[in-house]
Amino acid sequence: MGETADDLPRVLQLLWGLEGPARPGPKPTLQISDIGAAANKLADSAGLGAVSMSKVAAELGFTTMSLYRYVDSKDDLYVVMLEEAFGRPDPVDPDTDWRERISAWARSFWNAIKRHPWVLQVPVFEPPLSPKQLEWMEQGLKAFEDTPLTPSEALSAMMLVNIYVRGTGQITTHLSTDPQEISEADQTYIRRLALLADPERFPTIARGLTASAPDEFGVDYNADEFQTGLDTVLDGIQSLITRRSS
Question: Does residue 177 register a pLDDT over 50?
């Protein structure tokens, strides 16, 4: 027997605008997007750890219990937060080739992470099912639409790019491009790295520290370097496309 709208979690019913079973109590007066926006405001200002059902309710001027008419758990709240944080992706440009399309998709993804770095701390337990997250998946897959890749290979290629973007974001999202704005924690890390990275044992790290001022080491990761790493990933995908074309 197939799934029906009634089988979906409440949060997905609301995000998709599907009619689920009525719940007792007053008619809901909030929009699910209002909850996401309030939670994201808290996360943007104080990090993901600052988000709780009670604080989101207070931000909205509602009771904590009232939120449970919309989200059954904090995991559901995370789903709503991600939906709002990433928004809708830009549509794929059909006049560009697959590399340009997936590169644009990756840059949009990276920019969303830079706007909301806490998204990388959200635990992911299952593939996306919310509307905007599926739009991201759709646009990522469409980037490979005119290649000889099978649907399964296109999905793997998109996931490889996704992993690269998330990994890059994880490493660089808290590093400032302005040495004057490096956090105290980053400065402490760099000083300790300089102390512990013995040139004989860790020559490559030591050269990096020597090549620039210690307080600037590793903080100048920019869009060009992001694209360089992305191009390396895409070169690997190109090899698969070339094999499939021969």
Answer: no
